[in-house]
Structures are given as structure tokens and as C-alpha cells.
Amino acid sequence: MKNEILQILQMQEEGKLTREQAAELLSVLADGAREKGPSGTDAREAPRPERASAARQASAAISGFVDSAVAAGATVGRAASVWSSEILTRIHRDEGGNTLTLSKLATPSGNDYTCRGNTLNVSKVSDLLLDHAAFSDNSFNASRLTFAGLRHGRIAQCQFSGSSLSHVTLEGSDTADALLRAVVFNGSKVTRVTLHSATWEAGALMATVLKDLTLTNATLTDARFNDAAVASVTLENAHVRGLLLERSSLASLTIKDLTLEQVHIGATRLAETTISGGAWKNVKFRRDSGRESSLDATTFSNCTLSDCDFVGCTFRRTSLINLTLTGVTVRNVDFTGMALESDEAFRKAAGIA
User: Fold this and answer.
1) pTM beyond cutoff 0.85
2) Cα→Cα distances 334→282, 283, 308, Å
3) How many CA atoms lie within 13 A of 196 on its CB side?
């Protein structure tokens, strides 16, 4: 409860909550705490492992805070509604857009829909289903979005801070038809991001946990993943360009016929990866800031690598099969216990003539 109080106070200080709203929320949280049992936990809550990881603790804290805050919002009578394709709120409305605080919003949907310039603080949106629509310049702070589905439209210039999203899906007839642009996830938890014949451009995952990323016939460009954890990745017939991976972890990768170019991977771990077909061009896989980059339990097969650098990284249980190498640089690489200093040694270790 201490963390929840601190977050409420911080949101008040940042102007996201008024003094009266913060006081009402603190009062309701205090009432809820008094209703809990002697152990300080609700009997309905499942016990948490004593040694949960930092990422899981953060995710649980975010989810718990959003749930309790949204419940408190309902208690103090804050509600949101949809009217004439615009989101309105009974709290207040700014000239630059609408602000929803401590609110619940159910199933906004429609065709040729525009949702722009809104801020949701400690709120919950159950579904967002848009067709040929635009969802732009919106901010979610300590909020929960259970599903965002967009067909033949765009989600742009949006930021999710300390929030929870269960599923984001974009579908278009081609990569220019559906666009996820300049969308930033900061300190958030995302269950799934799925793009089919769509483009994710200039996005960022910052200290965010993403359980499942799937790109099919899609494009990811100029994106940045910092201190991110992605549990499952599927890339098929996709194009990734201008990606920066730093201090991140990606596991259970299935990559087929992927075009990867101008990508920098530093202090990042890729584990349980299967890479088949495709081409890598100008990819830098390096040790950064004293932290290694590594490939664990990885299989490369039938790939073309050109102008790629592998410097100060580690390959563990990695198999390289039928690769075509052009202009590949290998320096101070630990390949299953062997230090490789040249392209020739790399070729020899990989079984390439």
C-alpha cells in the first residue's frame, strides 16, 4: 500500500490528479486496507512466490495498483461515457483533449473513428475496436487496456506509462495500410503485440515486459528496446530495420525468412532461437558497457550475413548451418569455449568452407 500511496502523490505532483481526487483515492485505499484481514492480504488473493523476479514484482504492483485505483474511482463516482464518437468524462475536459481519471470505459468501437489528444490516468478500458480509424496523441498512465484492435488504420504518438495491456493487434491489407507509429511503452506490461501486414515505426519498449511479439508480413523500423524482456518472438516474412536492442532479453525466438538490416544489439541475450532463411545486413552484435551479448541454444540455417560485426560476444550451444558470409567481422568471440579472432576461424567453427 505504501507504493500505491507514493504513486498517487507523484501523480498529484505531476498534475495528473487534483488535490481533491488524490485525497478521495487515498481515503478509499485506506478503507480497503482496513477491510483486509490481520495478515494484510485479501483472502481472495493468490499467494505470491517469496522470490519472484523483479519484473514479476513490478508487473504485479502495476496490476494491483490499477485494479485498486479503478475500483476506488468507481466508489467515488467517477465514470466515463462515449458520445458522438468522442470520449467524455465527468471529471473535467481540457481544451487540448479529454482527461479520464479513475474511470472505466467499456468497448469504444466504430468505423472511421478518431480518438486523439486524450489522457487516461488510473483508468480501465475494456476493449478498443477500430476499423479504418485513428488513435493518436493519447497517454495512458497507470491504466489498463484489455484489448486494442485496429484494422486499416493507425495508432500514433501514444505513450503507455506504468500501464498494463493484454493484447494489441494491427491488421492491414499491406504494410502501409496499418501503422503503429511512435508508440512508447515505458515501465509497462504487455501480454501480446501482433502485427499482420502492418508497420511498427519509431516505437520503444523501455523497462517493459512483453510476453509475446508476432510479426507476419510486417515491418519494424527505427525501434528501440531498452531494458526490455520479451518472452516469445515470432517473425515470419518480416522486415526489421534500424532496431536498437540494449540491455534486453529475448527468448523463444522463431525467425523465418526475416530481412534484418542496420540493427545494433548490445548487452542483450537471445535465447532458444531458431533462425531459418532470410538475410542479415549491417548487424552489430557486441558487448556494451562491460556486459556481454550472447546467443544461447541458437540455430542459424540457410541465412545470408553481409557486413555484420560480432565483437566480444558469446555463442553457447549455437549451430551454424549452410550460411553465406560476406564481409563478416569476428573479434574476441567466445564460441562454445573457443576464442575466434578471424573470419576464417568463424567459418571453420561453423563448418563453412
Assistant:
1) no
2) 21, 18, 17
3) 6
